[in-house]
Amino acid sequence: MRLKFLGIYPNTPDDGSPTIWLDEDTGDLVIQSYRADEATMRQCREVGSVPGHSTDVPDHETVVRLPANMLQFIPRPDGEVRSDNTGS
User: Fold this and answer.
1) What are the domain boundaries of the chain?
2) Beta strand 29-32 with 3-8: parallel, antiparallel or unpaired?
């Protein structure tokens, strides 16, 4: 796996901030962010996804909450990332 750093929560004051990397071998995003609280998990189950699909989150998955200002680091179809913010 070859990870490429894409961005960290802007102006981060500590070591526990949301961060995004790109797996250059698969194109997957690897995201460190806030674990969704129980209210968010409950809403996810209530809203669901597609008809007939379970709304339970399997043990090998989780739901994370990504702050809106982190969307700037997600690669676009043209391959560009909008910012190079390193949190400083």
Assistant:
1) 3-73
2) unpaired
